[in-house]
Design goal:
single chain; about 130 residues; mainly alpha; translocation; membrane
């Protein structure tokens, strides 16, 4: 089944419900649960029908699995963006070329790093009194 619910677990939940609710109130709550599930299904179908009406014939052409946010892995997206890998290329193709950014030797980070490396063991770190 879905979500890790098996028949055994559902049976245990049912037995616990019988003990907690009692046999007198159980049919009433089961009917309420059935109405809730039915109304949720009707709401989902209504939303789908409304979306189909608003989008027109393009609704059936949409690949919904492609838009599923659970499939996105940021590491994979970045790796594919940085490499020139063709997923449909043959295996005999040459190794992919990785795009590398050029390093700016005068960047603020590298300047701070050089200053820190130049400090002696007894010297305190530089302090800027005007920094926020």
């Amino acid at each position: 089944m879905f979500g890790g619910l098996t028949f055994d677990k559902l049976l245990i939940v049912g037995v616990i419900a019988v003990f907690l609710l009692g046999p007198e109130r159980l049919p009433h709550y089961a009917a309420q649960l059935g109405r809730l599930v039915r109304s949720l299904r009707d709401m989902a179908n209504g939303a789908k029908d409304r979306m189909r009406d608003e989008m027109g014939p393009d609704f059936d052409d949409v690949d919904w699995k492609k838009l599923d946010p659970r499939q996105y892995d940021p590491r994979r997206i970045i790796r594919e963006a940085l490499t020139d890998i063709d997923p449909f290329a043959e295996e005999d193709a040459p190794a992919p070329v990785v795009a590398r950014a050029s390093v700016n030797e005068n960047s603020a980070y590298l300047q701070r790093k050089r200053k820190r490396e130049g400090l002696g063991a007894d010297e305190p770190a530089p302090f800027d009194s005007e920094a926020t």
